[in-house]
Amino acid sequence: MADLEQTIEKEKSLFIVEDDKPFRERLTTSFERKDFAVTAAANKKEALEVLTQHHFNYAIVDLRLGDGSGLDVIKVIKEKNPECRAVMLTSYGNIATAVSSVKLGADDYLTKPANIDDIEKSLMSSTASSLPPPPENPMSADRIRWEHIQRVFTQCNRNVSETARRLKMHRRTLQRILNKHAPKE
């Protein structure tokens, strides 16, 4: 019986590489509740050290880490265990990084905010070619645009001029958008 439990635990070994501490802790707690044996790393260096000693069957890797790229981590994970089901998470989704992720071995590519159930479905999907079902309550395009603007605005330390420059929009247009309430989901 103990051997069976160890086999199941090994089968559900999950490696999380995420530099955002609250999100990493939420992922860890959520997947531990789903009976995964979770190991977490906060940056590329720590992740590569863990990978020298352990093999995992599942991995969730953030694209942009404080000390490098999650692409390097995906590459090492797949070199050590080609059967590992790896999901790349990013707040900065674009086609180029999605293609790079898949070429290096990521089985899926999800943009944040991704909920735990979507990540689990992606991890547990048996075939990489099958697309997940569309979300039941997707955000509207206006809401996605508004959230992106708010994220860039926050990253620019709430500097309207800098945010407008980075978003390639007129400063007054940005000010009008920022003065409005968030669009409905």
Helix content: 40-55%
Compressed to H and E, one letter per element, the order equals: HEHEHEEEHEHEHHHH
Structure annotation, total helices: 9
Rg from Cα? 19 Å
What is the annotated CATH architecture of the largest domain?
A: 3-Layer(aba) Sandwich
Average of pLDDT: 81
| Strand line-up of the largest beta sheet | 2-1-3-6-7
Low-pLDDT runs of 5+ residues are 1-9
- Based on Cα principal axes, name the global outline: elongated
What does this protein structure show overall?
With 185 residues, the protein is of the alpha/beta class. It folds into 2 domains: 2-124, 3-Layer(aba) Sandwich (Rossmann fold); 141-179, Homeodomain-like (Arc Repressor Mutant, subunit A, Orthogonal Bundle). The protein is 50% helix and 16% strand. The protein has helices at 2-11, 21-33, 44-51, 70-80, 95-104, 116-124, 141-155, 160-167, 171-179, and strands at 13-17, 37-41, 58-62, 64-65, 68-69, 85-90, 108-111. A 5-stranded parallel β-sheet has the order 2-1-3-6-7, sandwiched between helices. The protein is elongated and about 55 Å long. The relative contact order is 0.10. The model is unreliable at 1-9 (pLDDT under 50).
Summarize the structure.
The chain contains nine helices and seven strands. With 185 residues, the chain is α/β, with parallel strands linked by helices.
Please give the structural blueprint.
Elements: H1 2-11, E1 13-17, H2 21-33, E2 37-41, H3 44-51, E3 58-62, E4 64-65, E5 68-69, H4 70-80, E6 85-90, H5 95-104, E7 108-111, H6 116-124, H7 141-155, H8 160-167, H9 171-179
Parallel strand pairs: 1-2, 1-3, 3-6, 6-7
Antiparallel strand pairs: 4-5
Helix pairs in contact: 3-4, 7-8, 8-9
